[in-house]
Amino acid sequence: MNNTVQLAWVNEAWDKALEKTRVNSLRIGAEFPHASQGGKYVLEGASWWTAGFWPGMLWQLYAGSGDESLKAIAEQCEERLDEVLDGYLKLDHDLGFMWILTSVANYKLTGSEQSRVRALKAANYLAARFNLKGRYIRAWNPWREGEDNSGVAIIDCSMNMSLLFWASEVTGDPRYRHIAEAHMDTVLEHFIRPDGSVYHIVNFDPASGEVAGKLGGQGYAPESAWSRGTAWALYGLSLAYHHTGKQSYLDGAKQVAHFFLTRLPEDQVPAWDFRAPSEIRELRDTSAGSCAASGLLLLAGQVEPSEADVYRNGALRITESLYRNYGTWDNADEEGLLLHGTSNYPEDRNIDVPLIYGDFFYVETLARIKEAGPYYWE
After folding, report:
1. Cβ contacts of residue 367 below 8 Å, gap of 6+?
2. pLDDT at position 42 over 60
3. Is 100 exposed, middle or buried (0-12, 13-18, 19+ CB in 10 A)?
4. How far is CA 233 from the centre of its chain?
C-alpha cells in the first residue's frame, strides 16, 4: 500500500486483533466458539459448522506474527475434528468451512502430511454429496425426523468448493474440479438474479434435477437480498475464477459485487438483508461486511487495473468502518472482535452479537490488505 495513513490504521487494526485473540485464546483454547453472548463466546460442539473459523483465525494470525501458542491451539482444534471426520454421520456440505481453515491451512503452512490426508478425506465426503441430475452439492442432512432436504442447495456452499479445487490441485485428479465447476455453474444459473442479488436456498427435485422452489432461508423473504448470502456468492465466485480462469465466474462475481457495493449505507457496513422492511433494515451484519471485503480484495486482483480500484476501495471503506465503528478494542469485557453481527434473523438466533466468522474474515481481510498470506481458500 502506498498510502501511509491507510497503512497505519491497518497495522493498528491487525495488532489489536492479534492482542485480543491472544487474550481470548487463554479461555477458549482448543474449543469451537460461534456467537458471543454477554461478552463471552458460546462454545459449540466439534461438529458445528463454524468449527473451522476459530482455528482458521489462529492460523492467519500465526502466519502474520509467528506466535507459536496460536499455532499450537489451531493444531489441537484440528485433532479434535478427527472425531467428526471419522464419525461421518454429522458431516454435511460445510466440510469446506471446517477443513479448509484447519487441515488445508496446516498443510499450506507446515507441509503436514497428516493434515493433507485429513483434507483429502473431507474433499471425498464433500464430492460424494454431488447430485448429478441437478448438478449441485446437497446442503444439509435430515437432522430432524421426517425431514427431507435431499434436494436442497444453498449459496453458502460456494465457499466450500475451494476444498474440491484444492484436492484436484494436490492430487492431479480433475474429478474434484469437475464437481466444483458443475456446482458453481448451477449457482450462476439458479442463484444469481439479473440484478446481482442472490437466493439463499434453491430446492431441486433430487430425482429429476428440476428446480422445485426458491426459499428465503436466513434472509427476510424468498425474493429479498440476504447480505451474507450476497457475500458468500461474491467471494465464492471470485475463488472459482481464481481456480479455473473461467470468465463466467468473474462476470458473476462482478455482478454480485456491484449489487453489494451500491446498497451499502453511509457507514459502509451492510444491513442483514438489503431488502428487509425499513424498520428492521437498520440491523447490521458485520460478518457479511467482513466476508465481502475479503472477496472484494481478491476480485480487485483479478480484473483490469482500471476496474480494480472500485473493488479495492470498497473493501477498504468497509474494513476501516468495521475497525473504527464496530470494533471492541476498548472493551475488555467483550471477546468478539466485531459487534453487530446477525446470524439467523428469521429463527431469532444470535441477533446483534459478535460472530466468529465475522471475526475470521475481518482478520483475513486485514491480512490481504497487508499482503500477509497465505489465504487458505486459494
Report:
1. 14, 60, 63, 64, 373, 375
2. yes
3. buried
4. 10
CATH number, span 4-370:
1.50.10.10
Total length of the chain: 378
What nine digits make up the cell of 186? 448451477
Give the least confident one: 2-16, 97-111, 165-179, 331-345: 2-16
The catalytically annotated residue of 94, 273, 285, 359 is 94
- Residue 6: predicted pLDDT: 59
Phi/psi at 209 (5° precision)? 85, 0
Beta bridge mates, 198: 192
Q: How far apart are CA 157 and CA 138, in angstroms?
A: 9
Q: Are the C-beta atoms of 269 and 190 separated by less than 8 Å?
A: no
Place of cell 425499513: 278
Residue with more model confidence, 238 or 7 = 238
Q: What values do phi and psi take at 275, rounded to 5?
A: -115, 20
* Distances from the Cα of 140 to the Cα of 129, 133, 240, angstroms: 10, 18, 22
| The overall pTM is greater than 0.90 | yes
Residue 156 catalytic?
yes
- For the beta sheet containing 211-215, the strands, ordered from the edge strand earlier in sequence to the opposite edge, are 152-154, 201-204, 211-215
Q: How far apart are CA 192 and CA 72, in angstroms?
A: 40
Determine contact, residues 162/96, Cβ cutoff 8 Å.
yes
Distance (Å, whole) CA 94 – CA 97: 5
- Rounded CA-CA distance 150/204 in Å is 8
| Residue 359 to residue 328: CA distance in whole angstroms | 11
User: Is there a catalytic annotation at residue 92?
Assistant: no
Q: d(Cα 335, Cα 357) in Å, to the nearest integer?
A: 13
The active-site residue, picked from 86, 92, 148, 156, is 156
